[in-house]
């Protein structure tokens, strides 16, 4: 066991350093001074260089070769599986390339934010071209002769390929489009959002709801950012949200969504701290937590009754005339541009657009100079109306600026996983609606903690969901849930 213990001690220090680097990223998105961007880019490049050196240290290969897996228990073997996979992948990427990607993407974040605020894709195009060039180079190193996009996707959802994703999307698209079109064509339409709402009061309500869903402010904090996110693992997991005066749901559901991510990290067994099992096993599984918190729980008829009362208490009004109508307003299918604000019926259509475009970008069938036009044409074809400005189109998401190619399809995988989890949850928790109506969301989130979150990265992604649900993964639970829900709301 000497080699195993030495490997895990080395791994502990590497992961601790990685947490420090992650905190730098959180700082950059929340409180870093505007003029500190260039210095932060150099800091991040240096940290990435050191991390890459540690993750590809030749001693890791020596320790792995010396370890007899027959002497290990299930937890130890799972740690070894993660370490071996990361070591093999990262050893293919030159240290200088890893550092350069960290430097360029750190600068690209501020370029993206400025271009987004000015609705000016052309000003962002040169730096995005550099990011794409570097990511193609990294993908080629990782792929080792295989598919470039699959090599990047593997980082976020191990064991899944672009063809696997395409097969799922092909199965989902017809029913999603039919549901959207039927709802928008219905004679009944829910009341739209109305009124203006204090940003300060939105944040107050957001903090209350975060606690209701089990977020522990002794080990986290809630701040504002351009693009909401969750950051950290173990005992320090921070979330952000955003406010809009005429749309309090943006703040409310962004917060609940990020709480889902944060609770996954916070609820992992402390025994896994600073080990490969001490964080979520994949982004698809991670998104299953954020999406089920936000949608199946947070947008349910039961919980929306509680939220209606809280809106009235907080703002002195709610954006609907009755509790029932409020539920319909919360779930209203809108013609809109923004993925993060999209209703459940259309959300996956937004992801499909991004998946196709980024797969072509990495594969070389699409260049950055043509990206905005390609986005706008695809959006018109998929949604039936034209993008009005870049911030509502190609510039709305931060992901590509920071090199997260292969990340977008995990949002839809998360929805598929959440559909399976929700079906199992309703079977196991007969009093679910009663608890949610009383604002007791931890009845449901506690089930997720015990069935899935506490295990961290112990199992592979699909095995994690199947272990929690006791059923194979299919798209039907999600699609059936959406059709039942929106058929009732729109009286189809």
From TrEMBL:
Key words, A-Z: Carboxypeptidase, Hydrolase, Metal-binding, Metalloprotease, Protease
Reaction it catalyzes: Release of a C-terminal amino acid with broad specificity, except for -Pro
One Pfam family linked to the record: Peptidase_M32
EC number of this enzyme: 3.4.17.19
SUPFAM superfamilies associated with the record: Metalloproteases ('zincins'), catalytic domain (SSF55486)
PROSITE patterns (alphabetical): PEPTIDASE_M32
Gene Ontology molecular function: any one: carboxypeptidase activity
Physiological role: Broad specificity carboxypetidase that releases amino acids sequentially from the C-terminus, including neutral, aromatic, polar and basic residues.
Similarity comment: Belongs to the peptidase M32 family.
Protein name: Metal-dependent carboxypeptidase
The species this protein was found in: Aliiroseovarius salicola
